[in-house]
Design goal:
The chain is α/β, with parallel strands linked by helices. Among the domains are: 1-34, no CATH class; 52-135, Inhibitor Of Apoptosis Protein (2mihbC-IAP-1), Chain A (Orthogonal Bundle); 184-369, 3-Layer(aba) Sandwich (Rossmann fold), CATH 3.40.50; 372-446; 719-751 and 1048-1176, Leucine-rich repeat, LRR (right-handed beta-alpha superhelix) (Alpha-Beta Horseshoe), CATH 3.80.10.
Length: 1176
């Protein structure tokens, strides 16, 4: 009785309230006052601490990987209270946590424990186990408070009524005793093959349950107490195999039996019935009596009819394992079908494949959703409280790999993982592979008597998974299962497939998670690849050969490959060899149109795919080193994980030859790669280079929006219709986005404690190997920790040659002075950008006497360095940029021309008043192959052109700026036949008006048969000779880049398409036709309609300045879209200054979906302006 209520209400008011209370359907207050249950209140306080190793069987399970050569038997250790830690012969006591190892032959574990950890309570716990809940009697810590007094019942009860009351009381006592028995509360998922079990009295993880409407659509999520409050009539509880249906029903029975759950006190009886233990011909009384939960009876149909039926909705039936039996007892079927008459509360737990059978009888449908991650972590923390680090590692993996969150979708997965952890205390036990292997282990343990049959089901379901993955398909029909040889009923029974029938004309089968489908597919592919049967092996190779692009390897089939390698050591070298060969296949880098449905199931892949696609659109050449690095990481990782590194090492060593290897310093390096370099020091000499990049946050140049805006200050803002407003973006919007990204990068960089952490140094410490070349790049950094400097010196010490690049890092040369001084003879290249070199730093650079390449980009000329360039007797390349305030060649000594090895001379943004001294140097370099000069000031270049003409080995000539005039074009044109090896001719920003000179230049272009890149000048003369220039391209069969800006008209533009259709431009990858403002819209339309044969084209630039924009008509847009559809390799299209509306873009997007480069095809059409255009 409630004392507070009695103090506030009279006895009459209380009685009236009880009689009229109706909080539940068909239940009033008086039903709660006549409970036959004894309330068991625990007096325990504080957080419950569990120890799974209290069970000797679980301790014995932990010795699955116990070394065969160990000197003490696992059984003896388990009996003594020890479980295995997974390290050597080290074991730990479950009670005191003491660890022992280095056992002697015949040593007694109990004596060893007593010697090193004299803890009498531990020994006594093993000798005299404390009474537990399995005894059927309640521990002393539980108070028994009677809630029933026979005196409160009616005194004038008839003999029959008294007899029924006594039967009811006996039945209640037997039910509560049965449910409080540990055999009922302790739920084992693995039968007799594994001892790990969870006691639902002590530990329960909440499920996520949703109610559904008649159309099988979710209505709302329900909490456990809400479900208990709404138990009435017939309820269907649907869930996949292992979703927690049994635990849910048993938890209800346990709460009722405890008497501690007021919300369940309205039920006089709760019957938990597992239909696995029922025969089809049994009566309901027999079914209840034959439950393996300790119910002893006797119980007759008469008792059920007389005692239970009148109670109607005060009786709760919990029917479990309905889907596990093919023949449901007639009594159960009658209970379900006629419950609208009996009016009992009925909860039927079924798998999704049998939900349809109950729809017409159920008033409520509940569906178990994915097991909450919080529940998984809660249960595992309790079970593994002795090793909380293990659970924390899982939390880290779940956070870093989002797909892990969706894998642990059922309690069965969580329990399987726990069992796997017990049996494999060390190793790779926190990964998706570990979880799935645990799940398969669960099946082999649960159905140990059907082992061969279960393994056969794994293979047939793997075949289904594999064929589905290459379609791709994640939903399967009965025909699909038949084709793969899958017994659908068995697959559902074993929990390998889920069957969905509700609201469907035909059943649909699914694997419970797409990653599990890939896991089984990997298992099957591994079987095929190692098969001795030729047919199976060929089928496995056919599957493997379909994984033929970087996108497929790193994306769509990434998990499949990893899973395949985890099953058979024989398959690993085979797969690695195949993947390495893709590097030599040009098509492997093509970003073909692919179905990205797999991205829906892999939360970790979209960012990776976006990176690959964007990299491909920016510069496809950048993909190759990224792909190579990815393959190396994958190969070393799977080789170590599968213990096949000794077999795979020769394959990996061969792959490393001539490659460029990136050692990431501030990003986490791939441990497997570093591990390989450490184990095989000879591998260090095989790559052509190792590259390391250090990024700081000092001296960074901020994004200057004002400089961009000033470029447009003299131009009039465009006037456009509102429909075309999206064609323009404000600079400020872009600037804010860039600044935010820069801030995020700086924040990340500020968290870096070490630039060269010890983790990447292990392969290089005390190694016998040597790197051919070390490329070091330091950006925005002026300070270095002493430990980082030591590590840098270690890297220098194992390098034959060193290339050093410094960007915006003033003073850093002095910071690393000890490393440079000690290894100065190893430096072959120095690239210096915006350093403001001091005299001391220049002296240090001059000490690099064997330098072969020097690149300097400085506003102030480093005079000491340049005046001593002749000291670099091995110099082959010199690049000078941005020295605009002085004449560099007046400072360079005469001895510079004696450097007979010079092959490349590159000068950009130079001040040249007289070219005679430069010409003298050029003339002396007879092996010169590359000459670049960018200069905007005029000077007499006659002597320079004559010197260039004498260099017969030139492969690149870039004369850019505006220093050439018409008379000198004739000299250049006359010299062109001398350059038989020329591959690059760049005359960008030069302008010529002399028609005769331009025609001669055009004719002589045809002799440059090896030309790959042609950047044409502008001017009236070039414009008049445009068609002739384009026609000469028929002879330039190796041309990859063709740039013709400002000079084209309608006819000359059309000539490009005609030449292409006649067989020209077949190797062309970049066609740059921007700022050709004399071309009209009809001219572009004709060009688009005519162009039909540029198979290699990847980039097309037809942009216009916004003051000469084109408002594209529908026919022009149609012609453009059709033209793009005929260019299969096209990746990047730039058409700024073209006004496109929503319908135009829609047409382009429709075509894009069918384009071979759909994943990476990018259209740029928006101008970035400092001010908004004028809208009309």
């Amino acid at each position: 009785r409630c004392e507070f209520l009695q103090s506030k209400k009279s006895s009459e008011e209380i009685k009236k309230y009880i009689e009229t209370y109706s909080g539940f359907v068909g239940v009033v207050g008086r039903h709660f006052t006549c409970s036959l249950i004894k309330e068991n209140l625990s007096t325990a306080t504080g957080d419950l601490v569990l120890n799974i190793f209290e069970d000797e069987g679980v301790r014995l399970d932990s010795f699955k990987t116990w070394p065969a050569e160990a000197r003490v038997e696992a059984t003896a250790l388990a009996k003594a209270g020890f479980f295995y830690t997974g390290e050597g012969d080290k074991v730990q006591c479950f009670n005191c946590a003491g660890c022992l190892h280095k056992w002697e032959e015949g040593e007694d574990p109990r004596e060893g424990h007593a010697k090193w950890f004299p803890d009498p309570p531990a020994i006594s716990r093993l000798s005299h186990p404390a009474p537990s809940a399995c005894s059927g009697t309640f521990p002393a810590s539980l108070q028994t408070v009677s809630r029933l007094s026979l005196g409160t019942l009616r005194q004038d009860m008839t003999l029959v009524e008294s007899q029924r009351l006594q039967e009811a009381k006996n039945l209640t006592e037997q039910l509560t005793k049965a449910y409080n028995n540990r055999s009922f509360s302790k739920l084992s998922s693995f039968g007799n093959s594994n001892h790990l079990a969870i006691d639902l009295k002590l530990l329960y993880g909440d499920l996520s349950v949703v109610s559904k409407d008649i159309n099988d659509q979710p209505i709302q999520q329900l909490f456990f107490h809400e479900i208990l409050a709404n138990l009435n009539s017939t309820i269907v509880l649907e869930g996949e195999a292992g979703s927690g249906k049994t635990a849910f029903l048993r938890k209800i029975a346990l709460l009722w039996a405890s008497g501690c759950c007021p919300i369940l006190s309205r039920f006089k009886f709760v019957f938990y019935l597992s239909l696995i233990h029922a025969r089809s011909d049994q009566s309901m009384a027999d079914i209840i009596c034959n439950q393996p939960v300790g119910f002893v009876g006797p119980l007759t149909e008469t008792t059920l009819r007389d005692v239970i039926q009148p109670l109607k909705n005060q009786v709760l039936f919990l029917l479990d394992d309905y889907s596990e039996t093919n023949s449901v007892p007639q009594a159960v079927q009658e209970l379900i079908q006629r419950n609208h008459l009996y009016q009992h509360c009925l909860v039927v737990a079924v798998r999704t494949n049998r939900t349809r059978e109950f729809r017409k009888y159920a008033t409520t449908t509940l569906s178990i959703a994915e097991f909450p991650l919080s529940s998984t972590l809660y249960v595992l923390k309790k079970l593994f409280s002795y090793n909380i680090d293990l659970v924390e590692q899982l939390v880290f993996q779940v956070e870093s790999k989002k797909s892990m969150q969706t894998i642990l979708k059922t309690p069965l997965f969580m329990v399987s993982l726990a069992a796997y952890w017990v049996q494999h205390p060390k190793g790779n036990i926190i990964s998706d592979k570990a979880i799935f292997k645990a799940y398969l282990l669960y099946h082999l343990l649960k159905y140990s008597e059907e082992r061969e049959h279960v393994l056969a089901m794994f293979s047939s379901c793997g075949e289904l998974a594999l064929t589905g993955l290459f379609k791709p398909s994640f939903d399967f029909t009965e025909y699909d299962l038949s084709e793969a040889g899958v017994d659908r009923d068995e697959a559902v029974r074993l929990g390998l497939l889920s069957k969905f029938t509700a609201q469907r004309l035909h059943p649909v089968y699914k694997f419970f998670h797409p990653l599990f489908q890939e896991f089984l597919a990997g298992r099957r592919l591994s079987e095929l690849l190692v098969s001795d049967e030729k047919e199976k092996l060929e089928r496995g190779l056919q599957y493997l050969q379909q994984i033929n692009t970087f996108r497929k390897v790193a994306g769509r089939y990434n998990f499949l490959l990893a899973y395949t390698c985890s099953f058979s050591s024989k398959a690993v070298p085979q797969i690695i060899s195949y993947l390495f060969k893709l590097i030599d296949c040009k098509e492997s880098l093509e970003s073909q149109s692919e179905d990205d449905e797999h991205l829906q199931h892999h939360s970790d892949l979209p960012i990776r795919m976006l990176f690959i696609d964007q990299l491909s659109s920016i510069n496809p050449k950048l993909l190759l080193p990224v792909f190579m690095q990815y393959l190396l990481g994958f190969a070393t990782s799977v080789a170590y994980e599968s213990n096949t590194i000794s077999v795979c090492a020769p394959i990996i060593l061969q792959f490393l030859r001539g490659k460029d290897i990136h050692l990431h310093s501030f990003l986490s390096p791939r441990k497997s790669e570093l591990h390989f370099f450490q184990d095989y020091p000879e591998s260090l000499s095989l790559p052509s280079s190792f590259q390391i990049a250090v990024q700081g946050s000092e001296h960074k140049q901020e994004f200057n929006i004002s400089a961009i805006g000033s470029c447009y200050s003299s131009l009039e803002m465009p006037t456009i219709d509102r429909d075309y407003a999206p064609a323009f973006t404000l600079c400020n919007d872009m600037a804010q986005k860039v600044k935010k990204e820069e801030k995020d990068i700086d924040t990340f960089l500020s968290l870096i404690r070490r630039h060269l952490p010890d983790s990447i140094m292990r392969p290089f410490v005390l190694t016998t190997g040597k790197m051919q070349l070390l490329k070091c790049t330091f950006s925005n950094i002026s300070s270095f920790q002493e430990a980082d400097l030591r590590n840098l010196m270690t890297l220098f010490s194992v390098s034959d040659y060193i290339e050093l690049q410094l960007n915006n890092s003033p003073g850093f040369i002095e910071v690393i002075r000890p490393a440079i001084e000690q290894y100065k003879e190893h430096f072959k290249k120095c690239s210096l950008h915006h350093l403001n070199l001091s005299k001391t730093e220049q002296e240090l650079l001059l000490s690099m006497s064997f330098l072969e390449c020097l690149e300097v980009e400085e506003k102030e000329m480093p005079e000491l360095l340049f005046s001593n360039l002749d000291k670099f007797i091995c110099l082959e390349e010199l690049s000078v940029s941005q020295c605009e305030n002085c004449n560099v060649f007046d400072t360079i000594p005469d001895g510079f021309k004696n450097l007979c090895n010079m092959k490349k001379l590159l000068m950009s943004r130079m001040k040249l008043e007289n070219s005679s001294r430069l010409a003298e140097f050029v003339k002396s370099f007879q092996d010169l192959s590359v000459f670049h000069l960018n200069c905007s000031s005029y000077f007499n270049p006659e002597s320079l052109l004559a010197a260039i003409s004498s260099c017969k080995k030139l492969t690149e000539i870039k004369l850019t700026g505006s220093f050439l005039r018409d008379p000198y074009l004739l000299s250049l044109a006359a010299a062109l036949p001398n350059f038989v090896s020329l591959k690059v001719l760049d005359l960008n920003s030069q302008s010529f008006d002399d028609k005769e000179a331009c025609e001669m230049f055009a004719y002589n272009l045809g002799v440059l048969l090896n030309l790959e890149e042609l950047i044409l000048p502008s001017g009236k003369g070039i414009k008049s000779a445009a068609k002739l220039v384009i026609q000469q391209c028929l002879h330039l069969t190796h041309l990859r880049c063709f740039s013709f800006i400002t000079c084209l008209g309608d006819d000359s533009l059309l000539e490009i398409a005609k030449v292409a259709n006649c067989g020209g431009f077949q190797q062309l990858e970049n066609l740059l036709l921007s700022a050709n403002h004399d071309v009209t819209e009809p001219g572009w339309r004709n060009f688009f309609r005519t162009l039909d044969n540029m198979p290699a084209l990847k980039e097309l630039d037809i942009s216009r300045i916004f003051t000469h924009q084109i408002k594209a008509s529908a026919p022009t847009v149609t012609a453009f879209v059709q033209c793009v559809s005929r260019l299969p390799g096209l990746v990047t299209i730039s058409m700024l200054g073209w006004l496109l509306d929503a319908e135009d873009l829609k047409m382009f997007d429709i075509m894009k979906k069918e384009h071979p480069q759909a994943r990476s095809l990018k259209l740029s059409w928006q101008w970035v302006l400092p001010l908004s255009p004028i809208l009309q």
